[in-house]
């Protein structure tokens, strides 16, 4: 059902590519039929949801109301637009801007809704800062009008300088983004250098102070509301676990407990695919004294136990050790294995990669450089073969061995591409530039392997992997905002600016197909391809506006071909995306990195690791990074060194456990762990109604002093 809904959402959003103004034009009948089919699918999903939801709950849910209203409005717009098109009257498809409503409001998109909630919660506080900021801009605009308006100054284009209050306000707003600095200052600065103090003061106050305050307010509110949401989830989880305990409990002596058999059935029901050794390990943790039952305290952390990824490791012998033990265990073979497992082996290949980087930067046409590439490729192939000889192949290419797979794929692809390129060049005079480009890219990608060898690099990459899913959520948020602004932009500006081939020198080509752009910076800089004539071009323009460099030239250009009020569109986009969404994204990145650098293992993880070691079936995470683990891991993560390592490797047989690496923890789990560490194990939490009505202000003391603030 989820796949079907996402498919129809993608189809619905992609219709803008085929509707006028279209990148790939299709008749209105075809796109309208596709849209009606999507609306039927959305309505069907809504009916299905209503069937399995209590009626009162369904009708109180604003998401369902939003979807129904959007479906109705879209159908009305389709009928009106189709009727007017039938009599050759062009109208506006305003309902297209509502399409992201489906992406946001279906239950499957809860993460995007959560991000929108963060924005909504941040708005009240940021609004006051924004009003104060705009007041500052207007005060400086009035000062500029009085100081410079009557001086008879002119811009580079020969236009009057700072004579219109609205133009001044716009130029000063742009100056906050530094996009028109120092151009906007130069006429006044050329007239008298004292005027530069006015602009310096303005930049310090509005660019450096106010923009920093924006980030501080956004970050503070984001963190406050996020912590409130996580706190609510943590207490709700504990409340549910209490309810489950009360249903399953029986009295043994003076205390209520859950019997072992019932606990097993519950764990199996919740996680049907859990392995028997893993389940037995969790039971040993929950029933420390082997009494045959689980007490209340241990039962309440069952959800946490099941959430923590425990990796079951099956230590296997190398196939060559089984087939040819006399060869694999010979002194020469053991020497090779010890060399490959040694840290120096990794360092040698890191140096080879860095030398390879120098050769990549040199001239490819030099025959010596070309032959050297074959040498480096041969060395990398030898490295892979030596590792496969030393480490158990199935473990070496395990699911979680990303860098091993990366090494192999890059080297094999580079080998194939290099051979293909050499074959093409030797077969004829034709040189395939595309194949050569692929070879060069693959060679450069090999340099990424250096990241694994440096601990700090690994930590940064691990954090980026952790926040990957949430970055995708922000990507969904950006897609929604871009889509709405792109649709509005296409309706307002399509056809106003046209792109001509750079070789065209006709008068139309020089002014982007619109005489209003004559002598403008927009036409002079040949920005003609920055237009809203289709969805793809609109997205590129919006990306340029997000970067903010030269965004005022784009705004001025579209204002010239329509109306000066068009600048409000570009200012609105800057406020929503750059000031609000980008700052929330920065706040999230800051929070994620703070957690990655500072968060220790949770109490439950520590309990699991302690029990693993007590049972004698443990492999420590620290040992993996120090290079002391078994021979089924990459040398960068594991591998014994010396005779002691060989003895330990021979002693390990059967199943072993370890806690999964931090890189497999989600940011949500880390946030929840951060708050739950503050809740005492015996704290059952407040009543359900109070939990549901938690407010961010409840987190902080009403009358702060040193003790309660600490």
UniProtKB/TrEMBL annotation:
The gene for this chain is LOC101682456
Any one of the GO CC terms: membrane
Q: Where in the cell is it found?
A: Membrane
Q: How does it sit in the membrane?
A: Multi-pass membrane protein
Which terms are listed as keywords in the entry?
A: Membrane, Signal, Transmembrane, Transmembrane helix
Which InterPro entries would you find in this protein's record?
Answer: Ion_trans_dom (IPR005821), Volt_channel_dom_sf (IPR027359)
Q: Name one GO molecular function term.
A: monoatomic ion channel activity
Record-given protein name: Two pore calcium channel protein 1 isoform X2
Q: Which Pfam families match?
A: Ion_trans
Q: Where is the signal peptide?
A: 1-16
Q: Where in the numbering of this chain does the Ion transport domain appear?
A: 3-224, 342-598
Keyword Transmembrane helix assigned to the entry: answer is yes
The scientific name of the source species is: Mustela putorius furo
Task: Keyword check for Transferase, yes or no.
Answer: no
Membrane-crossing ranges are 26-44, 65-84, 126-149, 161-179, 199-222, 344-362, 368-390, 402-422, 464-488, 568-594
Note the superkingdom of the native organism: Eukaryota
């Amino acid at each position: 059902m989820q796949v079907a809904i996402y498919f129809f959402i993608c189809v619905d959003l992609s219709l803008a590519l085929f509707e006028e103004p279209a990148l790939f034009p299709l008749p209105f009948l075809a796109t309208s039929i596709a849209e009606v089919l999507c609306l039927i699918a959305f309505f069907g999903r809504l009916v299905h949801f209503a069937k399995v939801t209590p009626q009162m709950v369904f009708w109180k849910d604003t998401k369902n109301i939003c979807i129904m209203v959007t479906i109705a409005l879209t159908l009305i717009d389709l009928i009106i637009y189709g009727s007017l098109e039938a009599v050759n009257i062009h109208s506006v498809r305003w309902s297209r801007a509502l399409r992201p409503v489906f992406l946001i409001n279906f239950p499957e998109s809860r993460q995007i809704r959560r991000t929108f909630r963060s924005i909504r919660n941040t708005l009240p506080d940021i609004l006051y800062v924004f009003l104060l900021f705009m007041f500052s801009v207007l005060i400086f605009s009035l000062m500029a009008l009085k100081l410079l308006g009557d001086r008879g100054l002119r811009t580079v284009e020969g236009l009057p300088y700072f004579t219109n209050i609205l133009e001044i306000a716009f130029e000063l707003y742009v100056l906050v983004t530094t996009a028109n600095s120092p151009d906007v200052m130069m006429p006044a600065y050329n007239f008298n250098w004292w005027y530069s103090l006015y602009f310096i003061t303005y930049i310090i106050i509005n660019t450096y102070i106010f923009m920093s305050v924006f980030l501080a307010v956004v970050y503070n509110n984001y963190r406050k509301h996020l912590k409130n949401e996580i706190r609510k989830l943590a207490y709700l989880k504990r409340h549910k676990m209490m309810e489950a305990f009360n249903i399953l409990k029986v009295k043994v002596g003076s205390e209520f407990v859950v019997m072992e058999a019932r606990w097993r059935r519950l764990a199996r029901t919740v996680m049907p695919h859990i392995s028997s050794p893993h389940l037995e390990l969790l039971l040993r943790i929950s029933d420390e004294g082997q009494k045959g039952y689980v007490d209340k305290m241990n039962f309440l952390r069952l959800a946490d136990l099941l959430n923590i990824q425990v990796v079951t490791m099956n230590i296997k012998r190398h196939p060559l050790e089984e087939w040819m033990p006399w060869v694999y265990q010979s002194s020469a073979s053991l020497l090779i294995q010890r060399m490959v497992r040694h840290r120096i082996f990794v360092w040698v290949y890191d140096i080879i990669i860095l030398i390879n980087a120098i050769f990549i930067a040199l001239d490819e046409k030099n025959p010596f450089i070309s032959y050297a590439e074959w040498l480096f490729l041969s060395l990398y192939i030898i490295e892979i073969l030596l590792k496969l000889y030393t480490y158990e192949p199935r473990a070496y290419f395990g699911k979680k061995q990303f860098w091993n797979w990366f090494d192999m794929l890059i080297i094999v692809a580079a080998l194939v591409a290099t051979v293909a390129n050499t074959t093409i060049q030797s077969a004829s005079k034709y040189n395939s530039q595309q194949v050569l480009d692929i070879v060069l890219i693959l060679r450069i990608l090999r340099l990424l392997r250096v990241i694994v060898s440096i601990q700090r690099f690994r930590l940064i990459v691990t954090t980026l992997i952790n926040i990957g899913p949430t970055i995708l959520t922000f990507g969904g948020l950006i897609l929604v905002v871009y889509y709405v602004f792109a649709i509005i932009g296409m309706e307002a500006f399509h056809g106003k600016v046209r792109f001509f081939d750079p070789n065209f020198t006709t008068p139309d080509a020089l002014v982007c197909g619109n005489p209003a752009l004559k002598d403008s910076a927009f036409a002079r800089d040949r920005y003609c391809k920055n237009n809203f004539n289709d969805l793809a071009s609109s997205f590129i323009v919006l990306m340029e506006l997000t970067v903010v460099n030269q965004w005022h030239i784009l705004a001025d250009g579209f204002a010239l071909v329509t109306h000066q009020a068009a600048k409000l569109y570009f200012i609105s986009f800057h406020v929503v995306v750059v000031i609000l969404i980008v700052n929330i994204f920065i706040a999230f990145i800051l929070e994620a990195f703070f957690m990655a650098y500072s968060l220790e293992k949770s109490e439950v993880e520590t309990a699991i690791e302690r029990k693993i070691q007590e049972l004698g079936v443990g492999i420590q995470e620290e040992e993996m990074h120090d290079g002391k683990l078994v021979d089924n891991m990459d040398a960068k993560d594991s591998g014994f060194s010396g005779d002691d390592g060989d003895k330990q490797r021979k002693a390990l047989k059967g199943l072993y456990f370890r806690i999964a690496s931090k890189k497999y923890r989600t940011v949500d789990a880390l946030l929840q762990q951060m708050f739950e560490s503050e809740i005492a194990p015996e704290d059952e939490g407040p009543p359900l109604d109070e939990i549901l009505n938690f407010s961010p202000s409840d987190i902080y003391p009403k009358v702060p002093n040193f003790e309660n603030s600490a």
